[in-house]
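Amino Acid Chain and Its Fold in Token Form
===========================================
What this section holds: a protein sequence and its matching fold, both as plain text.
Structure line: whole-number tokens from a learned vocabulary of local backbone shapes, matched to residues.
Purpose: to set a sequence beside its fold so the mapping can be learned.
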Amino acid sequence: MLNKTPLWKTLMVILVIAVAGLYALPNIYGEDHAVQISPDRNAVIDSTVLLNAEQALADAGIKIKGSKFDADSKQILIRLENPDQQNQARETIAAELGNKFIVANNLAPDTPEWLKALGGEPLKLGLDLRGGVHFLMEVDMNTVLKDNLQSLRDELRRSLRIEKIRYRTVEVEGNSVSVLFRDADMLSLAESFIKRTKPDVVVSESGELTLKVVFSELSLKETRDNAVKQNITIMRNRVNQLGVAEPLIQRQGPDRIVVQLPGIQDTAYAKQILNATATLEFRLVDTEHDVRDALNGRVPPGSILIDNDKTGRPELLVDTIALKGSHIVDARAGVDENGRPQVNIKLDSEGGAQITAFSRENVRKPMATVFIEYKPLPERDENDKPVFEKIQRVISVATIQTTLGQAFRITGLDSPGEAHNLALLLRAGALIAPIQIVEERTVGPSLGKENIELGQTAILYGLVLVLAFMLFYYKKFGLVANAALLANLILIIGVMGLIPGATLTLPGMAGIVLTVGMAVDANVLIFERIREELREGRGPQQAIHHGYDSAFSTILDANITTLIAAVILFGIGTGPIKGFSITLAIGIITSMFTAIVVTRVIVNNVWGGKRVTKLSV
């Protein structure tokens, strides 16, 4: 019999729409204005901090909607009943807790717990809708080159010594490493060895018995690209570790990075996250020379003085770096067998090989963990690039008890809070090069709210006009198309809610408005084809059957071409264009499903298999 839909297909359509509706549901609950409390360096956060914050708010007469301490992320979230209380609450909590904690305004979804348990979360909103902060950051490539030259210097010293090629000095000079030899035979052996083992450098003779080693242009380009890419990855990890949701972090030009943090209203807090350009180095303590001589200005060659964070006195360290923090892939705070705080470190394979070789030669010798951060200076260099001051301090000194491998531990820390924060920094990653904020913009939540309201109004007006036209022109079949159109909107929101990382922006809302208009095109083609079949004298059942079958190829061709355009826009477009193309592509796919499958199921269940003499179309 014509126009009969199997029960399984009807149930499938109901299930798909129900699931999409479930994951679109969180968007009706909105968000609470909240205050977020995070630990600063060396601070411990627990339920006692939450109790102190709640008591301070109660004393100030500020009523809270709810509060929660998340032990995993080490953060406290206090929800407030209205936005007017947010700034007052933040100032009250900050005054109560002091500078050991980061107290920042935030927005928290008000989704019920049962819906969260099912994975339901509201749509992530972009900076133009939610408000937040925008930074344009510049990577200091001079520091990248300097660090790579120092690594090349240390590697040449090590490899030449292993090959028993005698040299006088290996030093960094400008943008190259200069190697001075004892005689011409050693120079010739070294030149041949370096060319054979290091294809990324160019070797040339420079002066008597001296080799000049520089990185090739291809190697420098790869270094710059890798520095930006690794900084983007590490910054994204760091922001995620600190609980900032839905960040946009992407490259702009050869050495700049765009960072957008939707929902963050505290610019100072965002800067603190992003300017934490810290890293670690592990160096051997110089026990062969007297530190007092170094303090009097007689620093021995191959050693440096670095202040100790704990004792307040400088430590004399070997200048050669045993291991860089960039090799750390995981770090977890814990305690040793005596209950003292420690950080358990896991390295990548290259770092594991380095620390194994180093520690095997230096068992029973003290090794220092050096914390390094870069602070931007107000001036810029001759190329108009940022200038940074390098600040180093020793945070722990521990004796190497045995040969270390890919996993080892840092001891000598003062508190569990210090261990937790150090592990957090290492786990998030150390930036390959320091960065400087060259542009800063704040989008207020009121502007984002206005954009949302205008977008919702546009969608509502467009929806109402389309619904009214379809109902007036196609009568009962127009009612079917309207039901499919509403189902299409539910599907778009539900599918976007299921896509990890999907963000709704103002251009994305424009894509939804366009989809509302385009979604009925397929139904117009089908209904007009049914009318043609009726005018040619076919019966209602035959008209419905041929109307859907004949219009299918036209609908498919039209939507595939538009989908191809959306994919191209996504592939070559920037942020706003990508947002538009995503909602457009999703809308095209869901509109085909609702126009062809959903309406056919409704039509078949209402008119199919019955003696119908007239269709209201």
About this structure: The two ends are 22 Å apart (CA to CA). Residues 275-441 form a domain with the Gyrase A; domain 2 fold (CATH 3.30.1360.200). The mean pLDDT is 80. DSSP finds 17 helices and 22 strands in the chain.
